[in-house]
Amino acid sequence: MSLDMSILHKNAIGVTDEESLKQFTYIEKAKGYVAELEKELGRKPTACVVTFGCQMNAKDSEKLIGILVSIGYESVETEDADFVIYNTCTVRDNADQRVLGRLGYVKSLHKKRPWMKTAICGCMMQEKTAVEKIQKSYRFVNLIFGTHNLYKFAELLCQMFESDRMIIDIWEKTDRIVEQLPISRKYSFKSGVNIMFGCNNFCTYCIVPYVRGRERSRTPKDIIRECEELAADGVKEVMLLGQNVDSYGIGLSDEDKISFPELLDEVCKVEGIERVRFMTPHPKDMSVDLIDAIVRNPKVARHIHLPLQSGSTEILKRMNRHYTKESYLQLVDLIREKLPDAAITTDIIVGFPGEKDSDVDETIDVVRKAGFDNAFTFIYSKRTGTPAASFEDQVSEEDAKRNFNRLLKAVQETARLQSGKLEGTVERVLVEDINEQDSNLVTGRMSNNTLVHFPGDESLIGTFVDVHLDECHGFYYTGTMV
Ligand code: SF4
User: Is the whole-model pTM more than 0.70?
Assistant: First the structure.
């Protein structure tokens, strides 16, 4: 395709990657289609991106909205829009059901509005059976694409506008990362920054490596450029995102290759970025170097989310997690020793195939010994396509629920012991929002990720302020600005 540089979107200035330039020409073309629609409707067409799942999907949705806004749509929050895009998740079976339920509602809207468009993308679309189901039962859907070709959204939109048929474009894998496309951030003051995509770990319960592909790292140059641009745009906090940030660097050329701790050092040097978070480290890979990098960089948030999944070494082996109860606890001890002010949170699965009460006892033992500040607990959800789904010794719902309640009790007791430790101290918080229950209060987030509510107004949103923590209420504090 020959590129007409004269019509490129203003955001394309400085873009050098050929694929990105190509996509900018499609953005220009798609603008024409949206302008026609606007004329027809006599108003600006609206688009709604509905996001399911994790931070990665949230970040992808910002990219989708960036393109939609660039081509002339108004981004809205309700599905009562001219264009609805479902960015799906497939980590749990019921996530699929939720999307299909929503499609039923949208179908009735399509009947009333012939110009309406619906697209589905994300992890669920990487599964053949899900796509077949939509093809068969939801024929009104206009566009289906997957996780690997999201950067082609503008091109796919053009195809959608030019065709009456359902456009389906799913790739099994990719090794490319396309940079510098438009993005519309949800918050003006904080942003996620992808540092890598995909996962090589193949935990036996997890579908992610199958739907997001193998690990690919962005170059440090691209990551730092994005952080600098965000800082110039007023962003104060970034969250570096990857399924397993400790293995950042895989696949980079010798010239570009740096480790994740080195990347943290570089991001912390970006002027204007005052706080750096990251998600998610893997207990099998988290290194002393990384802990030391956090220690030497006060900008790095004092919060480590370290997914445990199970405290039983036997179950961890079946989960293919590559660490033991003991090595996990040693890691927690090291973090506590070097970063005494850090909050440690975790994810735990109960009811994994073959799990006995004694395995859950081991998990509860880790919860107590590690003293988690919080734990996100889940009942195991059988995910078709993963090895664990075909394990024969599936746990009954009744046993899983009983053990879930035992675990939850332990988690709550431990979290209660941890909470309140900072009562009476002054903490620096980033103000994020007006309090949902009381508009005289604002809500800020501390370095350790705990929320604090205190008197304030809208003008504080996006600024860092010092707050005296007056009282702890379990998972949050109330305070007073000093
Ligand atoms: S590390 Fe395991 S749980 Fe996390 S995304 Fe990779 S396979 Fe899934």
Answer: yes
